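Final report, Chapter 2: Outcomes

The project's central promise was a pipeline that accepts a single protein chain and returns its three-dimensional structure in a standardized token representation, suitable for archiving and comparison. That pipeline is now operational. To close this chapter, we reproduce one record exactly as it appears in the project archive, with the input sequence first and the structure output second.
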Amino acid sequence: MTTTVTTVLNDPRFKAAEAALQQGYTRFVDELITLTEIPAPPFKEQRRAAAYLKMMIDAGLDDAFIDDIGNVCGVLRGGHNAGHVAVAAHLDTVFPEGTDVTVRREGTRLFAPGVGDDTRGLATNLNMIRALIAAGIRPARSILFVGDVGEEGKGDLRGIRHLFEQGPFKGQIEAFVGVDGDQTARIVNQAVGSLRYRVTFRGPGGHSFGAFGVVNPAYAMAAVLTGLSQLHLPTEPKTTATPSVFGGGTSVNATPEAVWFELDLRSVSATELTRIDREFRALLDQAVAAENARGQTHAGVISVELQNIGNRPAGLCDPASDIVAASLEAARAYGFDAELRASSTDANIPISLGVPAVCMGHGADDNTRAHSLEENIDVAEDKVMRSQAAILATILAVAGIAE
């Protein structure tokens, strides 16, 4: 940490930035609504990315562009020839194409799918960019603002992976602040890892009566699902195994030729995640062998295909690190009862690479119903300003302020 939060808060330039945040409140809400009403389904963030690029340039970042994978990137140049501090919010939402994303207002609450997760983060970053420029703040380290793709679901953090592993800023990012989540008080420094699979069992199939007795892939799948329910899944470190989506078969009177399910394995511990993954794979082998031993195989045998559809690394940013200390101090300075949390966010990638990283929420909401059609957020001015000031103070404590 180049400087302390207290030093930042007492700097006249930061006080000017706070005033600029306040002055930008109405524009922040307008941009939030505009962005929310541009659909951004998984893997289809292009329209929102184009609008966000224009907004980023309008906010004052001339050096802004869309990278090869679709991330919107813009740099506020620092005073030193050092690395970058990345500040990211994600462009995508969980909602499929065709979802009505029209914003409804009730008092200070905005209702629309994706309005909070993570569109408010995108709009928050725009207001912070304008405030920094209006206050004439030049950071010591350059600040890289990112609107990234692929944070949700099967996007598998592809935007931030690209940023760190392949993009033009590879090897240059020295710290990371994610702006995502409904609670500024909940600071994520522990990355929940996940392994996601699509598991397909195949067999010969046949008539449900005439060919009865042949091996049935549904029985093999059922054995695996039962086995998953019996795995040892500790509550500390929290570890989960969740079969989630199912399909297969062709007719009620036909033994299926193929059945499938999707599985989400998670843990805050990389060791536990590796263990349950190993035990799950053993269940597959056992179930296939058992069904081939049980039924008739003259027409064919049971096989299983395992497709990895997601891999988010687990990890921990040291609670004693400068970036964690800064985020806690800044949040508490603005009245948030800050605490450290574990979650799956864009910060998983830098944390797994040993880059100091946290994820900070952009509100003070109790129940936003995120990922539902009734998702909603409170944009009451006091809550918004306290949250944005806390995030900005954290960023400047990490990046430093050039003299």
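Archive annotation: The chain has a mean pLDDT of 97.
This record, like all others produced under the grant, will remain available to the consortium after the project formally closes.
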